[in-house]
Write a structure and sequence with these properties.
Blueprint: E1 4-8, H1 13-29, E2 33-38, H2 52-73, E3 79-84, H3 88-93, E4 99-106, H4 120-127, E5 132-138, E6 141-142, E7 150-153, H5 162-175, E8 179-185, H6 195-204, H7 207-225, E9 231-237, H8 240-246, E10 253-257, E11 261-263, E12 266-268, H9 271-279, E13 284-287
Parallel strand pairs: 1-2, 1-4, 2-3, 4-5, 7-8, 7-10, 8-9, 10-13
Antiparallel strand pairs: 5-6, 5-13, 11-12
């Protein structure tokens, strides 16, 4: 089954910017694009005249207007549009089986909004089995420089970061873009590193060479698979979120992994993804673990 890029639209400038970004990504990858809008009639328990047919027509208009704009600007893209009769989170997550990635709008410096409002964006990111790209709007256009690096954060072992590195390399290859792989590290508190890991660090010549080797080892299979992608290896002392954000100013995309778990106030996606979604100036791809 050919996968497709799925973009959630709701008529907001953020979601229209997401649809525009998704269309350009569909061109880069040679994939079809599906625009999705969620609508489900839910009568209100109020003494008001309620018009389900009118609301459905309004929902169809949102989808039609977005589709017309994308088709006009990107006639080469194979485009479909779908009205999903479900709640926003369930609707977009339900497209995951056929999606190469999901694309939503982001207001940035606050809750991810795009597909609809409130915490929906974070729920989609936390629950998705496919990568989710959050796109910020700048005057109705994606806040993305036309050129620049694909920036990716590498954490843990090669196995831990396989999904995020695979997505980043494939994206850089499709765009003909250079890739910068960042591994942040911090001085270990007492007993934080195991005796075995400290022995490996000593054998490598210290903590910095140890971290550099860890990044190089994680990148090696992806360099071999994507030999035409120029790669810069970047190891820096500091928290992962801070180091990635300090490098994201000229990036065309920031790719991070997800560490989803349930919290007392709902789904949590991990501190690095949370910081990137709120503060990065460029689109952010959040990749679930394999």
């Amino acid at each position: 089954m050919t996968r497709e890029i799925v973009a959630g639209v709701d008529g907001s400038p953020e979601s229209l910017a997401a649809a525009d970004w998704a269309a350009r990504e569909a061109l880069h990858r040679g994939l079809p694009l599906r625009l999705a809008h969620a609508w489900r009639w839910e009568p209100l328990d109020l003494p008001l005249v309620q018009d389900p047919e009118g609301q459905e027509h309004a929902a169809e208009d949102v989808l039609r207007e977005a589709g017309t704009a994308i088709a006009r600007q990107y006639p080469e893209v194979t485009l479909t549009a779908e009205l999903l009769r479900d709640t926003p989170v369930a609707a977009l997550l339900g497209t995951g089986e056929r999606a190469e990635m999901l694309v939503v709008g982001s207001r940035g410096h606050g809750a991810v909004a795009g597909f609809l409002l409130g915490s929906y964006g974070q729920q989609i990111i936390a629950g998705a089995t496919r990568p989710v790209v959050a796109v910020r709007s700048r005057d109705g256009e994606p806040a993305e420089p036309p050129t620049g690096e694909v920036l990716v954060g590498q954490l843990g072992s090669p196995e831990d970061s396989a999904a995020v590195l695979g997505f980043a390399f494939a994206t850089a290859a499709a765009r003909g873009a250079p890739l910068r792989a960042v591994r942040a590290w911090s001085l270990p508190p007492l007993f934080a590193y195991s005796p075995a890991s400290m022995q490996l660090a000593d054998e490598a010549g210290g903590l910095v060479p140890y971290e550099e080797k860890a990044l190089s080892d994680a990148l090696a299979p992806w360099r071999e698979r994507f030999p035409d992608v120029p790669v810069t290896e970047h190891v820096e002392l500091g928290s992962a979120g801070q180091v990635l954000l300090s490098s994201s100013g000229a990036a065309q995309l920031l790719v991070v992994g997800r560490r989803a778990r349930r919290g007392a106030v709902g789904p949590r996606i991990g501190s690095v993804a949370h910081a990137a979604l709120h503060l990065a100036p460029c689109p952010v791809a959040v990749v679930p673990p394999e």
